[in-house]
Design a protein that fits this description.
The complex is a heterodimer of chains A (339) and B (428). Chain A is an all-alpha fold and 339 residues long. Chain A has 16 helices and 2 strands. Chain A is globular. The chains are: A mainly alpha (339), B alpha/beta (428).
Chain lengths: 339, 428
Amino acid sequence: MKNEKKPGLNLNFINTNRSYFFLLLILFCGLFAKNFFSAYNICAVTGNGSLVIYLGLGFTLCLIAGHMDLTVMYVSTFASLLCLGLRASSGLPWAVCILLATLSGTLVGLVNGILVTKFKIHSFIATLGMQFVVKGAMYIYTGGAELSIGRDYALNEALNGTVGPLPVSLFFLITTAVTFLLMAVLRYTAFGRNLCMIGGSLETAWLAGVNSSLVTTMTFIISSTICAFGGALNGIYSGSASITMGEKGISPLMIALTAAIIGGTSIYGGKGSVVWTWVALVAIAFLKSLCKKTELQVLVIAAILIVCIFYETLAKYHRDRVVGTRPNLRLEYLNESRK
Amino acid sequence: MKKYLALALAVLMLLSAVSLAGCAAGTASSAAASAPAASSAAASAPAAASASASSAAPAAGGNLEESTKLLADAIANLKTTDNHQMMADPVLFDVPQATGTADELAKLPDTDSNKWHYYEYLDWDKSADANLPASPADGQKGKHIILIVHGAHAWTTCYTDAFKAACDAVGMTCDVYDPNWDQSTQDGYVDQAINEHPDAIVLIPISADHAEQQFKKITDAGIPAFCSNTTPQASAMNYILAYTGPNDWYQMRLAADKLGDKLGGKGGVAYITHNVGGSPYYARCYGPMTELAAKYPDIQHLDVQSPGFEASAVKQVVSDWITKYGDKLNGIVLADDSDQAIGAVEACKAAGRQDIVIMAAGISKQGAELIQSGDLMCASYQSCQGDAGLAVRTVSEYFCNQEIPRVSYIATDVITADNVDSFTPCQW
């Protein structure tokens, strides 16, 4: 019998790279839209979508580790407020304001990590509680008022401005650099490998001698720190910050979660990529530009999300069903008989 | 199974692609049809704005004449649902001298009207005005404008419908973007609107403090920027050609006078605010508060709460007030006469406290019904359709090169049981 490979779609390849296909699809649709590929639009869309990329990065990290971090949005908002507030009240240099705001995120991440690893509270509950703590802190700090950069436009214009001939803002370039730095950490360091291991199987990680508590705590710290850094930059980029960010319209937290899943990060942990999330979020940012109506944006994003989750769930069910069995027994028999 | 699901995913993506492509193409073609000048614009926004102006120049004379006639007809004939003039003459107010700088005034008590000078009046440094685009002086007919509202609400629907009707009447086309109350989405829409190169952008800012950045972006792109309805921070006026909208402070003060009279100058009043940060938050809370403090010094100001616009949340707050303050609570000031008013009235009825006098900013169908039933003592008259009409009138006058006031307001009144019939059927 001649063993001929049938030509056809490699469905596994499509599924693995679905975020890239999603982005390509959106960009293809953009060909039919007016001024979609103008330098101004690309710069504005990627810049405005940068904050959610930071949230997506933080959320993806925790998701790979098998946890959820619901504080990401509030941490970034608090960092925005703190950064602008410090500048307005103390006149500190922007670098110091950004650093202090970022450290506030580090602190929240540390508390999240301790709650999850030492007090054994489920990350969903622990971060849900911390969400309200951070929100309360924001109310106390601002008294409910919105903070703005006033007429301190220098850094605002730099972050909004393009770099060289590239049609993207400096803010987006920094965001992209952070994404690929994080990708390198996940791919080429022991911490990155341990992170995937504890997300995939805590028992295996323990048998391999991985200090899962330390890795989990570090994950929460990195997640919150990144989000705080992004929040601080976004405050300067957009020129203002308010405590109600994300409470109306489409929540950035939900967009970050959606993008992580569309990107291919497993909701069960152990598998994922920050670059996939980055690609999915860039695609969603362009999708928003394409669909002028908010309700249409929500509909399309939700439809794709549901299909992705449905696929993930059934794929897991299929995997679990064949654990310990030899699903390819017939194939093995045929191969043997050919010899 | 996996193959079928992956196939389903691919089909879904394809369907999305087709629908999105259709949607995008539709938008592009409609925009192109309505604004031929804009479609030939170059990539950069400032260049596009000037290109659009110059391409219209050859036909300017005839178009201007026709535009002026269309505008005059619209002003004379367009009516609101409650049979008032939709594009009525604007009302202008003098700006008094501030008694100090913003930082100095911020230290004053909430009940001192001087504290809110820079919130109430658009008192800006005109010497710092940006290079605002000059009128193309070729008339509004054929112009395409983009309206960016603040969010979904019955009021917004009424406003946008009136805006479109007014645009249609004067020969303009318009697209409406609705960010659903989200600041970052509105920022995105501002960028998208600039990218579309319209002839003008009318924006209802979600936040007064953030408006300056938004209008600066529009003006820097060379596009005429108009602010409607919510008052921006005064310094934002450096980048705004004209503000049109209600004088919330003035009309709430008029209504507060009625409340003070009704209470006989005594008792306690509590306040439920609009969304924190927006101009109605300050005007509809501190407008009546400062008025009552100035004219009725024996009235106590018990509490200020911001539960939002859910009737149930407002009912809870008012119930808590009745429990906490008892007979000391005699009056309630609401920032909204629909859901907030329903919640407050229900709480008073449930507690058997119909003696509590309630006033609100309005006017909606629910508000009118509550006034007719006697549950609501009065509401300020803030014509939603008149607001939209004045914005379109101002934009049209700009294109016709007529002199436009930088700040103008719609006419107002106080609605009570005696005159409510002349304001029905309600606009929203």
